[in-house]
Write a structure and sequence with these properties.
- The complex is a heterodimer of chains A (about 110) and B (about 110).
- By secondary structure, chain A is an all-beta fold.
- Helix content of chain A is about 0%, strand content about 50%.
- In chain A, a hairpin with a 5-residue loop joins strand 7 and strand 8.
- The chains are: A mainly beta (about 110), B mainly beta (about 110).
- Chains A and B meet through strand 4, strand 5, strand 9 and strand 10 of A and strand 5 and strand 10 of B.
């Protein structure tokens, strides 16, 4: 079946602009996660959704970052007033709840000029 | 919070040799330890995982060992092949909670033909 998809695959923006990144999880997966991967670094947890609720937002680096999930499916990560340090690959993953393997999407490469 | 340390950061081996990557974790409540392989420009893909009620797990040329007392786990790849060249990430999580993955910094494995 279809895996996790993300759009856009690449996004170049100017400092100070807002961006929205989209994640389509695997159908039926109740858990959805956002991670950030900076150049040459490991993956850093940002936020976790169970259904449409986000019980763990502890990884969001600042109040410029927000995310929502609707219909227990699609999620959008929004970064307001982007900064150069926001440049990274943003990865989304989904799973059948907090007990199971997480499947990753291809990521969105964000470049802030 | 949870922290995962991974060593070495780079590893170069001759084709046919074995490769070992080691990780330590800080949160004794962690009970799930996956390993992901990420090829250049691709999404992370799960290659093997182990839960805390098991000390070792093997899948063909890949094995993972877990020492709960010492809070460390290792990935062993035998008979390495050039296609094993990639970045490998270990992670730890608390299944049954959020299931969020805390990743190590990654190991770049190069298998020389």
């Amino acid at each position: 079946g279809a895996g996790v998809s993300q759009s856009p695959s690449n996004k170049v923006t100017e400092k100070g602009k807002d961006v929205e990144l989209r994640c389509d999880p695997i159908s039926g997966h109740t858990a959805l996660y956002w991670y950030r991967q900076s150049l040459g670094q490991g993956l850093e947890f940002l936020i976790y959704f169970q259904g449409n609720s986000a019980p763990d937002k502890s990884g969001l680096p600042s109040d410029r970052f927000s995310a929502e999930r609707t219909g227990g499916s699609v999620s959008t990560l929004t970064i307001q007033r982007t900064q150069q340090e926001d440049s990274a690959v943003y990865l989304c993953a989904s799973s059948y709840g907090g007990y199971n393997e997480q499947f990753f999407g291809p990521g969105t490469r964000l470049t802030v000029l | 919070g949870e922290n995962v340390e991974q060593h070495p950061s780079t590893l170069s081996v001759q084709e046919g040799d074995s490769a070992v990557i080691k990780c330590t974790y800080s949160d004794s409540a962690s009970n799930y330890f996956p390993w992901y392989k990420q090829e250049l420009g691709k999404r992370p893909q799960l290659i093997i995982d182990i839960r805390s009620n098991v000390g070792e797990k093997k899948d063909q040329r890949i094995a993972v060992t877990l020492n709960k007392t010492a809070k460390h786990f290792s990935l062993h790849i035998t008979e390495t092949q050039p296609e094993d060249s990639a970045v490998y990430f270990c992670a730890a999580s608390i299944q049954g909670n959020t299931g969020k993955l805390i990743f190590g910094q990654g190991t770049t494995l190069q298998v020389k033909p």
